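Annotated sample (chain length 393).
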Amino acid sequence: MNGRQRWQLAVRRVKRSIEWVIYGLFDGWVLRSQRVVVNANGTAIVHLELLGDAVIWLPYGQALVRHLRAQGRDVTLVVDAALAPVLAPAFPDARIEAFDRRGALKNWNLRRQSLLSLRRLAVAESIQTSSPRDGLLQDAVVRALGAPAWGFEAVYRDRPWFDRRMGNRLYAHRVPEQIGVHQNLRHKALLQVLGVDASSVRPADLGALPPSPLSGRYWVLAPGASKDFRRWPAEHFAEIARRLAQCRPGWRCVVVGSAQEAQLAQPIVRALGANVVDLTGRTGLPALLALIAGARLVLGNDSAAGHIAAAVGTPSVMMVGGGHWGRCYPYNPAEAPVRRLPHVVGHPMPCFGCDWICRYTSRVDQPFPCIDAIDVDAVWQQVERVLASAEGG
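Output written by the structure step:
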């Protein structure tokens, strides 16, 4: 780790220390005198992750719910409120408790109401599925539930030591963290500790999806990502879109993403003209799943689109940097309960595994070098192989 990385890590730790104290004091004040009558059969499963991580976890979550229900447990699933419309159909035998993870970090009154609502669930145990955990969200939810909890050891690089120590004290049963492994292996390890038969894990059942809003042949382009530095340049996506339009002139390109990512669609719109459908900011999550399920191909960054494609069986090519290489992408073929493996294109560098603490730049408003260096021709070659394989099958 060079001086730039040490400085970035120090800044993160200072910021997290301040946040941890402020939120911790507030949460303690809210929960200081709350007592409930515990439901001895109640179990809460906490999964406060974003869409991509939730889709990876879904096969394991469904196996866990089946296991708990077979034991006669009343199961409540605590999920991000934004994902409730997608996860509720996938868990018909569980109660869904929606928790606004973004609002809980910005609105003190909403956070107070959410914590009290969790305490009133009065469960006898909770299971924290996330790793690494976030002390401001996941650990706060476990604290609010107030029941003996299962969870992974905290192994943060960018958190102060007392965050790890105090966070671990919330858990009656801690599972050793497996550093540097894919999320599939983490989820499998947790199930094994909980006594769930690994053979019960199968590709996710997403429930009944709505019909695709588009007919005919089309492919999906998702040029966004959770952070600017994880996005392959939009101009490179536009070049791939031009090549696809030439070899598959009957296919429409459908650009998806949040309203904040609408500007990323503009180079593609300019490149394809009438042969592109710009749906950025105009597609809810159920419709997004339906779009990807009906597509001939999905192209995107290290984001949810590729995980959805894997779950529903749509071919995909994803551009991935080195910050979390191996944690989400690429999948381990022997450990992936999916219908089709995503194809991953990266630019290998010795610094892979940096947790996005880049040794070359501290700017986060532009692609990091491992993303920017991904070659357009290398991506196109992978796209051609995927298309040939899909047509051959």
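Annotation: The chain has two domains: 10-27+39-200, 218-392.
Annotation: The domain at 10-27+39-200 is CATH 3.40.50.2000 (Rossmann fold).
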